[in-house]
Amino acid sequence: MPQITVTLQEEGQAPVGFIIPDAVAEKIDLIISEANSSTEVGVATYKGKSDWFYRRCYELLLKPVLDKFPDPEPEASIALRAEAAEKLRQASQIQAMARIVPILEIPTPAEEPTK
Question: Which side of the chain, N or C, has fewer Cβ within a 10 Å radius?
Answer without folding.
Answer: C
